[in-house]
Amino acid sequence: MTSARTSPNRPASLTGVLVFLAIAVIGLFYVKWFPYYNRAFVAQSHHSIGHSILMGDAAHAPAASFKSALDYAFAYGKAIWQAMVLGLLLGSAAQELLPRRWIAGLLGKTGFGSVVAGGLLSVPGMMCTCCAAPVVVGLRKSQASTGAALAFWLGNTVLNPATLIFMGFVLGWQWTGLRLGLGLVLVFGMGYLINRAVKPEEARNAQAQLDSILAGDDQGPSFSRWLKKLGTMTLQLIPEYLVLVLILGAARAWLFPEISPAIGNHLGWIIAMAVAGTLFVIPTAGEVPIIQAMLALGMGAGPAGALLMTLAPISLPSLVMTRKVFPPRVIAGVIGAVIAIGVVSGLLAVALHF
């Protein structure tokens, strides 16, 4: 009876999977893989990948104003809009085109295996935290565990192979080693701890839902539902996202004071930069020219190390975008973990004489 009931859906399911894979492969090749391949040669030959999006070549960000907000939003939007479109396409398609049993079976369990799978799946994505957020939402709504979804989210940024290569050519390979070592701890350690910290009642409910999905039949892909989901996600996520980018663009002067040798390797500055980096929003690999410019202006290695681990993983807009699929204590835990690992990174940069 089961095989007779599910067999008519198999061609349709295969079509949905193929469409999803086509979007992922073609989209990532066009938006990420090919541009970053060429950019790596620029980083190698020029030891630079461009100007700091935060403040350009100046020692301080422009004063808070509506113009500075618009200027940053325009520069940021120009850098990420294609990846954001791809993220929305993939996040909605994951819910409506992929068999839910596949996602639940690979990412739905609370063991370390699902965390590893989520982290490894993130590596080809190479998205910034905000562009990965719609995919994270889609995975969570398709029954991916909290830890696996977090590993996917954080891995897109801190384990991005292109950024690691740019970092080596521009900043030095010691910075790449620091980022990779602490990034592995953040991605897989945080995912594991979050899965282990699930309350017993929540774990039982999640397991019951997982068992139901694994034992049941997928309803098959629906392109009409996919388009509807795409529109819903866009309307829910993009307006608040744009408002927060504008606010952060205007607040650059408050979050990042004038950069000079006065911002030295004191613990207070390391913590301050860790907090500012956690809140602020940048495009993929944007931390590389930002740190390069700040070091050139005399900032200490400690604050730079803090920014190394906090500018990319999360931001205020991406936290707001994912707030409905992660419990508040998980959001708070992620914020705390990113700030803490930023402080550790800063202290290590000082101790290792970067």
Topology at a glance:
Blueprint (H helix, E strand, L loop, with lengths): L1 H5 L2 H38 L19 H31 L3 H8 L4 H11 L6 H13 L4 H13 L2 H10 L2 H24 L3 H16 L7 H28 L1 H4 L11 H13 L7 H10 L4 H10 L5 H6 L6 H24 L3
Helix pairs in contact: 2-3, 2-8, 3-6, 3-11, 4-10, 5-7, 5-9, 6-7, 7-9, 8-9, 9-17, 13-15, 13-17, 14-15, 15-17
Explain this structure to me?
The chain has 354 residues and is mainly α. It has one domain. Helix content is 75%, strand content 0%. Helix 5 runs parallel beside helix 7. The longest helix has 38 residues. The radius of gyration is 21 Å and the shape is globular. The N terminus is likely disordered.
* Sequence stretches where pLDDT stays below 50 over 5 or more residues: 1-8
Structural category = mainly alpha
Shape: globular
**What number is the mean pLDDT?**
90
Distance from N terminus to C terminus (CA atoms, Å) equals: 65 Å
Rg computed from alpha carbons, rounded to a whole number of angstroms: 21 Å
Provide the β-strand percentage band: under 5%
Helicity, as a percent range: over 70%
Number of domains: 1
Number of strands: 0
Largest sheet: none
Helix/strand order: HHHHHHHHHHHHHHHHH
State the helix count: 17
